Amino acid sequence: MKLVVTGTCLLCSETIYPAGDWYSLLQSKLPPLCSACTDKLAPINQARCCTICGHPDSKPHCAACQPEDFMQRSFYPYNDDVKDVLARFKYRGDAALAQLFQLPMQRLLRRLPKADAVVPVPLHPDRLFERGFNQAALVVKRPKLLLARHTLSAKQSKSTPAEREANLREAFHVTGNVTGMRIMLVDDIYTTGATMRACKDVLIRAGAASVCGITVARSLRKSPM
Q1: Which of 13, 68, 110, 153 could, after both became Cys, cross-link 167 (CB 3.0–4.6 A)?
Q2: How far is residue 182's CA from residue 212's CA, in Å, rounded to a whole number?
Q3: 87 in helix, strand or coil?
Q4: Which residues are registered as beta bridge partners of 73?
Q5: Backbone phi, then psi, for 135, in 5-degree steps?
Q6: How far is Cα 14 from Cα 7, in angstroms, rounded to an integer?
Q7: Interior CA angle at 67 toward 140 and 56, to 5°?
Q8: For residues 93 and 132, what is the distance between their CA atoms, to the nearest angstrom?
Q9: Is 165 exposed, middle or buried (0-12, 13-18, 19+ CB in 10 A)?
Q10: How far apart are CA 171 and CA 152, in angstroms?
Q11: What is the pLDDT of residue 78?
């Protein structure tokens, strides 16, 4: 009897038929995406990105970046395909898609200085209740909830860069002892960097030794750090 092991693509629901004999298939985990969907989600070439902000095709670094600026990396460019997947994950409640990003985020963690804690950017409690989960906390393993958000502003995706900065002033506070800790911030999308910088600033004021960041995706436009 021939044993056929199959899986279902998380995005298009097509059946996945991995190669290999049945014994090897039983010893390995099936991929979450079919080959067609995998091809749509092409990652950023980390060897060519800015060594500070992670912008693609900006090696060694963007003209606006300085060595002391906030260091961060993103796995995917925020193009139309990635935007559709993140919208389904973030706004349409498909929390299972988090597993698509956990391994990529682990790879990014290895590219940045070692962290004592991986801290997701928090949602305001009202937004968390509305969404049902914090997408930034789901894309990494063993997140530490050391930040909270106490102001609810307009959605950042609909704000200008200047409005983002104003919206986030004093928006976050630290909920645990971060003295001397090396913190890795995690979020889903890097657009202007305003959210990450606001979180970094409050962590540094609370005594964190250093703060870097990783996101699932980032905007292709350049913005000052």
Answers
A1: 153
A2: 8
A3: helix
A4: 214
A5: -60, -30
A6: 8
A7: 55
A8: 8
A9: middle
A10: 8
A11: 95
